[in-house]
Design brief:
The chain is α+β, with helices and mostly antiparallel strands. It has two domains: 83 residues, Sandwich (ATP Synthase, domain 1); 27 residues. It has one helix and eight strands; from the N terminus they run ββββββββα. Strands 1, 2, 3, 4, 5, 6, 7 and 8 form an eight-stranded mixed β-sheet that branches. A hairpin with a 2-residue loop joins strand 7 and strand 8. The radius of gyration is 19 Å and the shape is elongated.
Length: 123
């Protein structure tokens, strides 16, 4: 481990602290931008949005996974704090806002029309 220090992971919901793990070697968190973030000792301070998914953690003698709703991640001085609405059940999926679905369909339609326009202009 960098600097000989271990990580501490705390997970909070609106009801308070629900998980705390100490002496961790690494943590992997899915970010809202769609990419995972690997965290090891000495990581730079960061505040970021997380997406729904698995948070994986590892110490010298244990490995674990937690499945959470989207939330907020804070990293500072080897302390990782995640604020989330709660854990996900096996069959639970995050609700998609109907406006987001409309927007995604509109963007998909525009991209397809642009592609068709490009194909026609090159023929």
């Amino acid at each position: 481990m960098i600097q000989g220090k271990s990580l501490t992971l705390k997970v909070f919901t609106p009801n308070g602290l629900i998980h705390e793990f100490t002496d961790l070697f690494s943590i992997n968190v899915p970010l809202a931008n769609g990419y995972p973030l690997g965290i090891m000792s000495g990581h730079a301070p960061l505040i970021a949005g997380t997406s729904q998914g698995m948070i994986r953690y590892r110490s010298n003698d244990q490995y674990g996974e937690l499945n959470f709703h989207a939330g907020i991640l804070s990293i500072r001085d080897n302390m990782i704090i995640i604020f989330t609405a709660g854990e996900l059940g096996e069959s639970e999926k995050e609700q998609i806002n109907p406006e987001e679905t409309k927007y995604n369909r509109l963007m998909e339609s525009l991209v397809n029309k642009l592609k068709m326009g490009e194909e026609q202009s090159t023929s």
